[in-house]
Amino acid sequence: MKKVLFGFLLVTLFLAFGTEVKAETGVRYNTFTVSNNRLVRTQTAYVPVAQTRFVGGISLDEPTDIHITPNDVMYITTNTPTGGKIIVFDLKTEEAYTVGEGFLNNPTGVFANDNGDIYVADRLGQIAYKLDHDGNILQTYTRPTSPLFGSEDFQPRKIVSDPRGNVYILNLGTRGLAQFSNDGEFLGYFGTNTIQPTLRTVLQFIFFTEAQRARLFNLSPPEISNIAIDQRGLIHTSSLGVEGQGVKRLNISGGNLLPEMLNAPDLVDIFVGPIGNIYTITRSGMIYEYDREGNLLFAFGGQDISNQIQGLFNTPAGIAVDSTNTIYTLDRASGEIKIFVPTEFTNLVHQALASYQDGNYIASQGPWEEVLKMNDFFDLAHRGLGNAYFSLNRYDEALEEYYIAYDRAGYSDAFWEVRNEWLLANAGVGVAGFFILLIGFVINMKVNFTHFMMNPIKKGIRKIRDKVKVIDDILYLFTYLKNPADASYFIKRRNQVSAYSVTVLLAIYFMLYIYYIYNLNFLFNFRHLDSINIVEELVKVVLPVILWVFCNFLIGTIREGEGRLKDVYITTVYSLAPYFLMLPVITIISNGLTYNEAFIVTFVTTISIGVTVLYFFFMVKETHFYNVKETIQSIVISAFTMAMMLLGLFIVYILLNELFILIKDLVLEVFYRVTNT
Question: What would the 3-class secondary structure string for 194-209 be?
Answer without folding.
Answer: CCCCCHHHHHHHHHCC
